[in-house]
Design goal:
The chain has 662 residues and is α/β, with parallel strands linked by helices. It contains 23 helices and 17 strands. It is globular and about 70 Å long.
Length: 662
């Protein structure tokens, strides 16, 4: 058995005081639930070890900090693995998602303890709920009788920032769309039920897509089930704090995730990868005084609205980030220079009053200058410029042949297929496994698939010969483990032949004004600035939804789609735009209303709060577009909820079966 390796400490919670609603309630409720569950496992005074499913380490850090866990008797935090650890504590608590590989790792550890005759009390907390499949695996592994307790930790929506919530389900889109597994949709319905229990019933609900419609049906069924522990018994008595819910399937817009994001936060995600409101940077990017030995050490750096400079930069188009940083740097320098000109006590007192804020800004400017330098270096790279040119050409339906040739140039040259070297590794060179080689080549292969999908979606299919050629070359040069990924993309319609019926991309562009020739990037007035001339279809749909006034207008032609749990769901959003909405793929549009307690007219809040829920993930660029929509609609406060914040890489990477077990 191995020694315990502690996980990195978590700190720097986002200040939620400026959120449209009191999101601190979500955080505090989750913390109370966790404390209660840990107390049921054993008293706080008894020492225990907490094993974390690695995918939950970051989300948990957004709720609780390590000192609090220490106060609850957690002596060690360990990432879950197949091997047991040597630790004197008797109580071992496993906080995991009910996935097959997690249950097998727990079973493997239990067998390790039984071999050395260590008596451990095993407690399993499944996030966000127990699954019969997981318990069956423990039975099959022969360790079920060794488990002291197994319970659910209903850990659903997590506040990522003041206006962003996430379920942190990275494989939800694949599960829903490819495997037809509706578990993620049930999680969304339960999360919305909990939300309404705290903040009151949402009066007006709109949506587009079959998955969104399913969520609303489940939401209404749960509201009517007396045996449901989440039933909103008191929510009807609470005036609604969220006035409107808009549900949107990711399948309504598959083009946007394939594009290169051009807002600052999106580019950071593309280059470094953002996870749980933080990014891993080398120490020399954070601390100018870092020693030579420590320069390349990775440091977790928070990225949230706590940082005033990042809050200002996050939604900016990359073209204006440099000038904005330069102005901030000049302000810092000018403030420091005031020391030499201050002659009176009053001037010195004023200077000392602002010097602390300037020092914080100085540190932030240093970090973001280093980040921006790396990001801009990539943006100026000829390969990246060629990629952007290809994307812009595909979006505007020009020069398709050149774009197809560009995709083919991404393939390795003939004779460059990946092979496993049989030479013996040196001491400085660790042994390579097949999995390591697959992992090192995977993102290059997924880049090719990403642009093949973009071509297929915007050019109404790939030519048959080109499609077969790309498929053959990818499998031969990157490995046949990608066959299932390509097959899934075919099933989803992201890769297709021109013969397959589809709504022409040019029609969508024209009807929804997706491609905008001239965009003001410094002071944007159109959401197309987030992709330098392309407006995400998903966000154009949101604009259309917000243009519909509530209460909804119904005519004799308005069709009743469903009647569930005593609630009626109607087809369409508004008679004047329904024909336009039907052009966009992804499923039906619908609307519904819920009876609710009227808000007190003397209430201090006058703004309309809208919750946008992206079912299947959304990008940082789409979140930036939603923030601009809020600015362009006075009196509206927008919050974005999603199953996971995605990028082009992570979106397609989720289709790889190997990625689920990392």
């Amino acid at each position: 058995m191995s020694q315990a390796k502690p996980t990195p400490s978590t700190s720097g919670h986002t200040d939620l005081s400026n959120a449209p609603i009191n999101l601190q309630l979500i955080r505090s409720t989750a913390v109370k639930d966790l404390v209660k569950l840990l107390g049921r496992c054993c008293p706080a005074s008894e020492p225990k070890v907490l094993f974390l499913d690695q995918s939950l380490s970051g989300p948990l850090g957004l709720l609780v900090e390590v000192p609090m866990l220490k106060d609850l008797g957690i002596e060690s935090l360990v990432h879950l693995g197949p091997r047991g650890i040597a630790h004197p504590a008797q109580h071992f608590i496993y906080l995991v998602r009910p996935e097959v590989h997690c249950m097998r790792d727990i079973a493997s550890q239990i067998r390790d303890y039984e071999k050395v005759k260590q008596e451990k009390k095993i407690h399993i907390l499944c996030v966000p709920q127990r699954r019969l499949m997981s318990e069956k695996i423990l039975e099959e592994e022969g360790v079920w009788d060794s488990v002291t307790s197994i319970e659910a930790f209903p850990f659903y929506l997590i506040p990522i920032d003041t206006d962003v919530l996430s379920l942190e389900l990275p494989f939800s889109f694949r599960d829903i769309s490819v495997d037809r597994d509706k578990t993620s949709l049930l999680h969304i319905a339960k999360s919305l039920t909990k939300l309404q229990k705290v903040y009151g019933k949402i009066p007006s609900i709109q949506g587009k897509g079959y998955n969104s419609l399913f969520i609303l049906e489940v939401l209404y069924k749960m509201a009517g089930e007396s045996q449901n522990p989440l039933k909103m018994e008191t929510s009807k008595d609470n005036p609604p704090e969220i006035d409107r819910l808009i549900l949107l399937d990711r399948e309504c817009d598959l083009v946007t995730p394939c594009l290169s994001q051009l807002v600052y936060e999106g580019m950071i995600d593309e280059v470094f990868g953002i996870a749980n409101s933080s990014v891993q940077l080398t120490l020399d990017m954070v601390d100018a005084k870092a020693t030579e030995e420590g320069k390349k050490k990775l440091v977790r750096t928070p990225l949230s609205s706590n940082d005033a400079l990042f809050k200002e930069l996050r939604d900016a188009n990359l073209s204006v980030v440099g000038p904005k940083l330069q102005k901030k740097a000049e302000f810092v320098t000018a403030t420091y220079d005031r020391r030499h000109n201050a002659k009176t006590m009053k001037e010195l007192k004023e200077l000392m009053g602002c010097i602390q804020e300037v020092q914080i800004l100085h540190h932030s400017v240093t970090i973001h200058t280093n980040i921006a330098e790396k990001v801009l270096t990539m943006a100026k790279d000829p390969k990246f410029r060629s990629r952007l040119d290809c994307e812009q050409a595909l979006l505007s339906s020009t020069d398709k042949k050149k774009c197809l040739k560009y995709i083919e140039t991404l393939l390795p040259p003939p004779g460059a297929q990946q092979t496993i070297q049989k030479k013996q590794p040196t001491k400085a060179e660790p042994k390579s496994s097949i999995a390591d080689i697959i992992e090192s080549n995977k993102f290059e292969a997924f880049d090719i698939l990403r642009y093949a999908c973009l071509y297929s979606l915007t050019c109404d299919g790939l030519p048959h010969n080109a499609l077969e050629y790309l498929k053959r070359e990818i499998l031969q040069k990157f490995g046949f483990h990608l066959y299932s990924v390509i097959d899934q993309l075919f099933d989803l319609g992201m890769l297709k032949n021109p013969e397959q019926p589809t709504i022409p991309w040019s029609v969508l562009c024209e009807e929804f004004n997706l491609v905008v020739e001239e965009v003001e990037e410094n002071s944007p007035t159109d959401i197309a600035y987030v992709y330098s001339g392309y407006a995400p279809l998903s966000c154009r749909l949101i604009e259309k939804a917000l243009d519909v006034r509530c209460p909804f207008r119904r005519t004799e032609e308005t069709k009743l789609l469903k009647s569930t749990g005593g609630y009626d769901i109607y087809q369409g959003w508004h008679p004047e735009i329904d024909s336009l909405l039907n052009i966009a793929s992804g499923g039906p549009t619908f609307h519904s209303t819920q009876a609710h307690t009227a808000r007190n007219t003397k209430s201090a809040r006058k703004d309309t709060v809208v919750l946008l829920f992206f079912v299947g993930g959304c990008t940082y660029a789409e979140i930036s577009a939603c923030r601009l929509i809020e600015k362009l609609h006075p009196g509206i406060r927008i919050m974005v909820a999603t199953t996971k914040i995605i990028s082009g890489k992570s979106f397609l990477n989720a289709f790889d079966p190997l990625s689920r077990h990392k």
